[in-house]
Structure to design on (216 residues):
């Protein structure tokens, strides 16, 4: 017997899920395959998560695809990731668009090859009007970068004489951070067994439930 009122069950669903999709490398190593094989499988995992969110009516999904610290990985792995990213974008966009997904990229994207930056803008523009699910892909993102950028933007307003330091409060600060168009994540998931945040959303997860799973 189902004791949960279906209307209530919908209310209890998270509105915004943030995921650190970790463990690609170890997944591949366990299969005696190169790490790139794991990153490719990671793309399939992204597809599965997006489909699940669409099915359940989740409003916003924010995925950590590449951290500001990931540049420290071997050059070979970084370029494999860029390549994979670009190809996945080209391949998946039609389906995402057809399913009402709005894509956005969050992070210091000026560090990426121009070709990739242009692709991102194109995809964002194309999917701008979609309403079923917002998919934020965090690329060259760091939670500290996010907070520092907000502080810098406010400092610039103070310098320009349009803002008094005493007027800076949480609400005003929040407006300068990323993802302000949507409610903060209410569920934060990290796969791969590590129980840390690794500089993903910091400001935004103040009240998120944290869920860690060993699944790679
Ligand atoms: C996460 O998987 C994906 C990215 C950082 C792009 P990892 O590559 O960190 O995989 P593990 O943690 O080494 O297994
Ligand atoms: C976090 O995973 C970043 C992404 C999943 C994109 P990492 O594997 O880079 O984090 P650490 O090195 O375990 O902290
Ligand atoms: Mg990792």
């Amino acid at each position: 017997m189902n004791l949960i009122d279906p209307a209530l069950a919908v209310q209890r669903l998270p509105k915004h899920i943030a995921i650190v999709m970790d463990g690609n490398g170890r997944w591949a190593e366990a299969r005696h395959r190169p790490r790139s094989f794991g990153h490719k499988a990671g793309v399939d995992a992204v597809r599965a998560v997006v489909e699940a969110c669409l099915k359940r009516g989740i409003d916003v999904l924010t995925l950590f695809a590449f951290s500001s610290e990931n540049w420290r990985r071997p050059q070979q792995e970084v370029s494999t990731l860029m390549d994979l990213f670009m190809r996945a974008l080209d391949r998946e966009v039609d389906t995402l668009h057809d399913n009402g997904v709005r894509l956005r990229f969050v992070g210091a994207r000026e560090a990426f090859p121009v070709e990739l930056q242009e692709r991102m803008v194109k995809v964002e523009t194309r999917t701008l009007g979609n309403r079923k699910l917002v998919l934020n892909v965090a690329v060259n993102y760091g939670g500290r970068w996010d907070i520092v950028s907000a502080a810098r933007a406010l400092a610039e307003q103070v310098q320009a004489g349009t803002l008094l330091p005493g007027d800076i409060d949480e609400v005003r600060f929040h407006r300068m951070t990323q993802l302000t168009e949507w409610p903060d994540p209410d569920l934060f998931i990290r796969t791969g067994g590590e129980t840390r945040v690794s500089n993903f959303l910091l400001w935004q997860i103040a009240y998120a439930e944290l869920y860690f799973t060993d699944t790679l």
